[in-house]
Amino acid sequence: MAAQDTPDDSPELAESRIDAVVAVVPPLLHALDALTHVGRHLHPTRLPNLVAGLQSVQADLTGALGEFRSLSWPSQSAGLVQPIETAAEAIDRSFAGLAAAAADPDGLMEAYRALRFAPRAAEALYPLAGLLGPVSLFFLDEAGRADEGLRQRLVAPDEPRPAEVAQGGPGLGVMHANNAKHQRGGFSLYVPEYYDSETAYPVIVALHGGAGHGRAFLWTWLKQARSRGAILISPTARGGTWSLMQPEMDAANIAAILDYVGEHWNLERRQILLTGMSDGGTFAYLAGLTKAASFSHLAPISASFQPMLLQFLDQQRLQEVPIYLTHGAEDWMFPIDVARTANAALTAAGARVEYREISDLSHAYPSEENDRIVTWFLDRGAASNPPPPG
Predict the structure, then answer these.
(1) pTM of the entire structure?
(2) How buried is 319 (Cβ within 10 angstroms: 0-12 exposed, 13-18 middle, 19+ buried)?
(3) How many CB atoms lie within 10 A of CB 257?
């Protein structure tokens, strides 16, 4: 692809550029959906078939990128071209890593590493949501896509949004605070673009899994936060994973992050969901059921649990805080009996548990469950209507 300061501005070339953008965006978004599908269904025995299913997706994207890159682009188009190129590169690295993993009999961990490029692609594309309708729709859940009023409120802002929380004043959209990929203990944040300081917003605090990072895990929940009008906070553990043996360390950091966000944006303090995947789900139990915790709802996903934890948790909190417990029947890291034991022990202790056992879920994130969780969280009557069996 060529970039130049004084390109040919003929109507034909301008139209070709528009056509190329229109052609390349859908396969980019389709590729992101395909990678989400792989992550959702990832299991050692399924990996080769999952990767084989990516071939047509990759071919479509390659063809569209070929046309996109064959054109000359003016330098002032960098704000459009660069996000597409960055996202395409990340997706390509993810495809390549998955292909290598599928060829390796012990390639499951390599597959997990390859999937870490998908959030990088999402982060690259998100700034285009205010410019390109298909990108904006992609970052909404089904309810959001059907809400015409919401789509109108998500038009491009008049002023640029800060990429760092510390850049003067409360910003909107996606921001990061000391949370580059090499940093620990910071957080990433999403504030709806239609934020109104006179309104108190519910909060979702989403905790990544072991060896994960908050900057990447933010994208697991962004569609629901953007669609349902919630502020989303995705912290990064101070160490390689959450401080399960010294929960006060990361718990204090999360509390400080909540206080900081609450100083700059209007939070509904009575409505704060703490959710997490794997080690993040385990830490949600530890941090969410202490006496000093301020979370109103907990949603651990694919988490470990030991009944002996109950003696260290606040008994009043156990009975007051609703818990939405999700686990996969095919989980190979924390077998399903862990979740069944947790459900029984928590229920016996007086907790209000919504138990969701998903038959085809391994140790993976069930992205389709977010809609149910956020509805349960935001609708105070949802606790009396448990979700259908999985």
Answers:
(1) 0.91
(2) exposed
(3) 21
How many helices (H) and strands (E) the chain has is answered by 15, 10
Token pair, residue 34, equals: 């395909």
Q: Is 385 helix (H, G, I), strand (E, B) or coil?
A: coil
**Which of 3.40.50.300, 3.40.50.2300, 3.40.50.1820, 3.40.605.10 is the CATH number of 159-384?**
3.40.50.1820
What is the bridge-based pairing of β-strands 187-191 and 231-235? antiparallel
Give the number of C-alpha atoms closer than 13 A to the C-alpha of residue 213, restricted to the C-beta side: 17
- Which of 271, 321, 319, 326 minimizes the C-alpha distance to 298? 321
Distances (CA, A) of 128 to 91, 133, 134, 231: 17, 9, 9, 20
Written as tens digits, the pLDDT of the chain (390 aa) is 544 444 556 778 888 999 999 999 999 999 999 999 999 999 999 999 999 999 999 999 999 999 999 999 998 899 999 999 999 999 999 999 999 999 998 999 999 999 999 999 999 999 999 889 999 999 999 999 999 999 888 865 545 555 666 544 568 999 999 999 999 999 999 999 999 999 999 999 999 999 999 999 999 999 999 999 999 999 999 999 999 999 999 999 999 999 999 999 999 999 999 999 999 999 999 999 998 899 999 999 999 998 888 888 888 899 999 999 999 999 999 999 999 999 999 999 999 999 999 999 999 999 999 999 999 999 853 333 333 334
Residue in this structure with the two tokens 């009557």, named with its chain if needed: 381
Residue with token string 């040919």: 8
Distance CA 290, CA 27 (A): 46
> Residue 262 is which amino acid?
G
Backbone torsions φ then ψ of 195, nearest 5 degrees? -55, 135
DSSP state of 237: -
Which value, to the nearest 10 degrees, does the dihedral of the CA atoms of residues 366, 172, 151, 227 take?
30
What is the chain's length? 390
378/297 Cα distance (integer angstroms): 10
Type of residue found at 210:
G
Q: Single out the residue of 286, 299, 289, 281 nearest to residue 247, CA to CA.
A: 286
For residue 67, CA distances in Å to 26, 64, 70 come to 14, 6, 5
